[in-house]
Amino acid sequence: MNLLFDSFWRAAAYCLHPRVMLLSLVPLLLMAGLALGLGYFFWEAAIDAVNATIASWALMATFADWLDGVGLTGLRAAIAPLVVVFVSTPVIVVLSLLAVAAMMTPAIVQLVATRRFPALERRHGGSVLGSIFGALWATVAALLALLVSIPLWFVPPLVLIVPPLIWGWLTYRLMSYDVLAEHAGQGERDELIRRHRSTLLAMGVVTGYLGAAPSLVWVSGAMLIVLAPVLIPLAIWIYMLVFAFSALWFTHFTLAALQRLRDERLPLVEPAEEPLPLNAPPAPALPPAAPPHV
User: Fold this and answer.
1) When you count CB atoms within 10 A of the terminal residue's CB, does the N or C end of the chain come out lower?
2) Between these two residues, 290 and 209, which has the higher pLDDT value?
3) Nearest to 170 by CA among 240, 56, 90
4) d(CA 215, CA 57)
5) How far is it, in rounded angstroms, from Cα 205 to Cα 170?
């Protein structure tokens, strides 16, 4: 637990490092440009499609008419943007995590290793190909899980549990490989994940919940269309900082755990006897042993 909390506070402090702040701007520009571009070309079409779907469902149409009847026309108009944001948020979160993993994690690992673990041997147990393959299959699995779990999102308690769990699992899978790829051997990485699997998964879930917080800003940008060009990039930047914190947390934790693992495996070397100086006097001869009494 000491290692867990120590790495947590170190990661929080490193988020204020100027280099980390600058690194977060690179994926921010990419994701903000992607989000604004998709919104510019497909926002109206998505809103129209949702409104048509709502009108085709008798229950939803009745609910919309009831909102008009009680004077909540503005709330009815906000339903379609909220649905679009509700559906697109998981995709934005997953893409943000992948952008951080690809663009920020190597630099973050280098920063932490240089400042805290300069003597830690690099055994190169991972590869770029392995990272890409692992990221692809984990992302596909997470997106399928999100798709299958959509009906559960309409149950109030489960919508606060299921998506963060899936994002947390994806964070755990991506970060556990990427932050150890440079320093740990393959056997060391497997041993660390076996020892700390539950802790690493819990760290991923915590960051998954932190990643859900910027959705409030994202929803505000959907409801206040005029402020969307400001609020949507702000929400994406918060996502970037959350996942940068995640990369820092995993890096501090796993590299410290790797250092402990190697310290455990160091052979115990007995101290060598101190050699006598060349001009030392000879040791006194021992007296002859007395003959045994019969």
Assistant:
1) C
2) 209
3) 90
4) 27
5) 9
Choose among 175, 192, 139: nearest CA to 248. Answer: 175
If we measure between CA atoms, which residue out of 57, 182, 193, 206 comes closest to residue 121? 182
233 Cβ contact partners less than 8 Å away, ≥ 6 residues apart: 28, 32, 35, 36
Q: Does residue 80 contact residue 50 with C-beta atoms inside 8 Å?
A: yes
pLDDT tens-digit series, residues 52-63: 776 676 666 676
What are 212's two structure tokens? 């859900």
What are residue 52's phi and psi, to 5 degrees? -65, -40
Question: Which residue in 111, 101, 105, 106 sits closest to 18, CA to CA?
Answer: 111
E strands, 178-224, are: none
Q: Which two tokens stand for residue 245?
A: 């914190």
Q: What residues contact residue 7 under an 8 Å CB cut-off, 6+ apart?
A: 249, 252, 253, 256
Domain limits, the chain: 2-39+78-263
Cβ-defined contacts of 191-199 (< 8 Å, 24+): 191/261, 192/254, 192/257, 192/258, 192/261, 195/257, 195/261, 196/253, 196/254, 196/257, 199/4, 199/253
Token duo for residue 133: 């393959």
If pLDDT is split at 50, 70 and 90, which confidence band does 256 have?
A: very high
DSSP-derived letter for residue 68 is H
Q: Which two tokens stand for residue 292?
A: 């045994």
Q: How far is CA 59 from CA 50, 53, 64, 192, in A?
A: 14, 11, 9, 52
Separation in Å, CA 130 to CA 138, 217, 254? 12, 35, 18
* Radius of gyration from C-alpha coordinates of the chain: 29
Largest separation between any pair of C-alpha atoms in the chain: 123
221 φψ region: left (φ > 0), alpha (ψ -120 to 50), beta (else): alpha
